Amino acid sequence: MTLQRPHETPPPGHVPLRQRLPLDWLGLVPFLAFVTLFLLAPTMYIVIGAFRSAGGGFTLDNIIGLNTASIRSAYWVSIKISLASASLGCLVGFLMAAAMTLGGLPKAVRGPLLTFSGVASNFAGVPLAFAFLATLGPIGLVTVFLKSNLGIDLRLLGFNILSFWGLTITYLFFQIPLMILIITPALDGLKREWREAAEILGATGPQYWRMVAFPILFPAILGTMALLFANAFGAVATAIALTGSSLNIVPILLFAQIRGDVLGDPHLGYALAFGMIVVTGIANTIYIVLRARSERWQK
């Protein structure tokens, strides 16, 4: 004898799972279309163009053409600027985020600082370049004030906004806020019980940070530094608008090759862009792996 389950009447408004899933995925269609049109399609076009000759055939000459002195120098300068801005951005951003979350700053500072960081981390391109030229340029506000009132000539001291350190300082405007936004959740994840346990065992403040907090935060810090490196390495509009052709870096060299000058080679430009995709892709992969490890440790 088998027992039959009574027929259960579905609640009002109930939609079977097979009918509900397509509607749930429908909300992702605009995002997927945007990613396909403005990220995947241009990336594939660049990758294909890097291995295509002027006649349309397959070739490795564009990739081999990257092994020239000027292009190697451009990549090296771009890597140094990205490393410098990422390192300084990580250091300053970490100290600011630690002071906000674990220090003695008033809680009222947190909201405005995170809001500003969200805006400043996306502030780049021509407006950012103009802001720094108007501030630290040859006739910028700070430059003129220091020279007129304090007798300090930044030019005589060797500072030039159109140089390596000038571009690095400009990048810090969006690197530091991005570090604050990313590292703040990791700092919030440090449990108070860990510090209390360390203090009970006789650990000092520096010992707690060296033996407990920093090892936990290290994957997040290193991963964020990789993300900041990729962020600076791929910054094109800010570098072009600020330095023009006075600094030999990959974005400026790429712009000169693709825009169609007499000596321009679009396919070599695609190869330059392909190299940038590889470098930033490696940096972003490192960030994703280390970020996942950091979140797993904090759980």
TrEMBL record:
Write down the Pfam families for this protein, in alphabetical order: BPD_transp_1
Which InterPro entries is this protein grouped with? Answer: MetI-like, MetI-like_sf
Q: Which PROSITE patterns match?
A: ABC_TM1
Keywords recorded for this protein, A-Z:
Cell membrane, Membrane, Transmembrane, Transmembrane helix, Transport
Membrane topology category: Multi-pass membrane protein
Q: Where found, per UniProt?
A: Cell membrane
| One Gene Ontology cellular component | plasma membrane
The ABC transmembrane type-1 domain, residue ranges: 75-289
From which domain of life does this come?
Answer: Bacteria
Segments traversing the membrane = 25-48, 81-103, 123-146, 158-187, 207-229, 236-256, 268-290
> Which GO biological process annotations does it have?
transmembrane transport
Q: Which Gene3D superfamilies match?
A: MetI-like
Similarity comment: family membership: Belongs to the binding-protein-dependent transport system permease family. CysTW subfamily.
This protein's name = Acriflavin resistance protein
What organism does the record attribute this protein to?
Hoeflea olei
